[in-house]
């Protein structure tokens, strides 16, 4: 009864937002409702710890410390496991992942099959999607407006030096992603119909139970699921639809407060068509959309980079010097570091655990096989795409564009803006759009299409993350599914109508909040990941030896 009551109350809340204070415009009404919650929640999640003369958000310390520890403990997997990750995505080891190395090569040690009730990690069912589909789904959840608008905001607040710390965060974040996604596959569940249920809520509850902390694991699993539902409505939904609506309105030069709602309704219909089909349909869409949209964006970025080839050295000089000698008024080196890490964390979500939900659905007998695939995600998202965006914006400023005039441009065009500490209006999408337009005339129209695709793919991926968490909380019935999907689509509309100031506060804080329960689980369970990695590497070695000896024709098992 309590579950249904909670569902009904949650369903009614967005409706009440629309009905309040009818004399105000709809955009202002929604923003007024969001702002008090967003401000309080952001302040709570970004609680600072005094270190010397600086106040550093504890969540940043947790992310940096955890990622650094995993990087050292697993011997820099971003470098040592990169080739293995590429080969796994290419399907080079699909035979041993499908059949198990013991069956192919009579190696009992490498797989150690166990028929464990309520799990499928060593049973005959191996998941729902391929490595590439799982990676595409997870990448689509992270490659989004954070790569376009977020990078611009980071540079606006921290200067070019923030880019350096974003790259560092991406590199060490690859280790965190490797750990959480390996655990996601290891502790996943399977329904009677073969549907996969996985993610941090499962490895928190089941994994911590294994190591003797059942009650703590159960509580952390519930906390994560609640926060993930909120994050799916915020950063994975409202923020995306908000920026898509801003860009569409700017391109079409639309006026009037109802435009955001109209655009939001259109987006909601398109998202709804996809999410009804579950992870298989989501994966089939993302594996096509992600390469297409990323390809367009990367090609355009490369055009601008080569057009400014003579300035590449200067750009990296500004990035490196700015990382250690930041521009005045931002609180020094630590201030720039915090901006870079916070923006990178919002972009690639390493440590938040969200991507582990998508990766859990992969077809494999070896959890570590998906762990190594997952470490490619922060590399693609932050090291490659965010760096390209940063270079485009830096070239834009090198060529004489005054940052102040960029901010004024955004305000003059009526865009929803975020104010920095000095009161200057910042809009990341407008800033990035102007940077591209300066070299590729009218590219802003193409960028609008890319933004909509980024937003669309991120929303459908996060709908899956949120739905899995919702099911963990309220059961796996059809009623619970329907209630969540209706709520999710309502937040598409709400996000498109709200102003960026409220949405970005809510979005950042909800996604960063996932870090707390997730990282606790990772610190307890990382030895399990080491064991799984040994198993997978052992299976790969057994295959290589069999091929070299000519003992088995492995192609018949592919």
Automatic annotation (TrEMBL):
Q: Which residues cross the membrane?
A: 54-74, 219-239, 259-277, 289-309, 315-339, 372-398, 443-465, 486-504, 510-526
Q: According to its UniProt record, where is this protein mainly located?
A: membrane
Highest taxon of the lineage: Bacteria
Entry's Gene Ontology cellular component terms: plasma membrane
Alphabetically ordered keywords of this record:
Cell membrane, Membrane, Symport, Transmembrane, Transmembrane helix, Transport
Q: One Pfam family, short name please? A: Na_Ala_symp
Q: PANTHER family of this UniProt entry?
A: AGSS FAMILY TRANSPORTER, SODIUM-ALANINE (PTHR30330), TRANSCRIPTIONAL REGULATOR, LRP FAMILY (PTHR30330:SF3)
Family statement drawn from the similarity comment of this UniProt entry: Belongs to the alanine or glycine:cation symporter (AGCS) (TC 2.A.25) family.
Q: What is this protein called?
A: AGCS family alanine or glycine:cation symporter
